[in-house]
Amino acid sequence: MTQRHEWTFAYSIEELRQAAQAQLGRNQDRVSYWVQKKEEAEINLRENGVEFRDDQVTGGSQLNIMVDPDLRQRYDDARSKLRTYVNLVEEFERWLRVFHGLDLDVSSEVDETRELDVRDIEYFGL
C-alpha cells in the first residue's frame, strides 16, 4: 500500500506566491474563453434554438415554445464552466492576498516555508 498520501514537501512562501499567480493567470484565461463561448452559445440559442408553434386545440389555438435541447445544453455547460473559473480566479486572488500578507510580516516567528501534501501540490500546479 502506498504512503503517498502521507508525504509532505516544503515550499517557500515565494514559490507558493508564484504558483498562485500562475494559477490565477491560467484561470483568468479560462474565464475569457468561457465568456466568449457563453456569448456564442446564447446568440446561437436565441437565433436557432427557439421555435414558436401555434398548435390548434379544441376551441382555438395554443402557443407552444420549443427549445432545442442541444443548444440549451451548450449554453448551460458554458455558463457552468464560466462560474467554475470565476470562482477559481477569486480563490487564487485570495491566496495571493494571504501570501502577500505573509511577506509583509517581518516577525521572526513566521516560517518562510510551508509543508504541502500531494493534493496541495496539485492544487497549486507545482
Give descriptors for this structure:
single chain; 126 residues; alpha+beta; two-stranded antiparallel sheet; 3 helices; 19% strand
Strand line-up of the largest beta sheet: 1-4
Q: Tell me the series of helices and strands, N- to C-terminal.
A: EHEEHEH
- Describe the main β-sheet briefly: 2 strands, antiparallel
Q: Could you report the average pLDDT, rounded to the nearest whole number?
A: 89
Total of DSSP H or I helical runs spanning 4+ residues: 3
Radius of gyration: 24 Å
**Strand share of the residues?**
15-25%
Work out the oligomeric state of the chains in this entry: single chain
Please estimate the helix content. Answer: 55-70%
Structural class: alpha+beta
- Tally of domains: 1
- Quantity of strands, as a count: 4
Weakly predicted, low-confidence segments: none
Morphology call: elongated
- How far is it from the N-terminal to the C-terminal residue, by CA? 25 Å
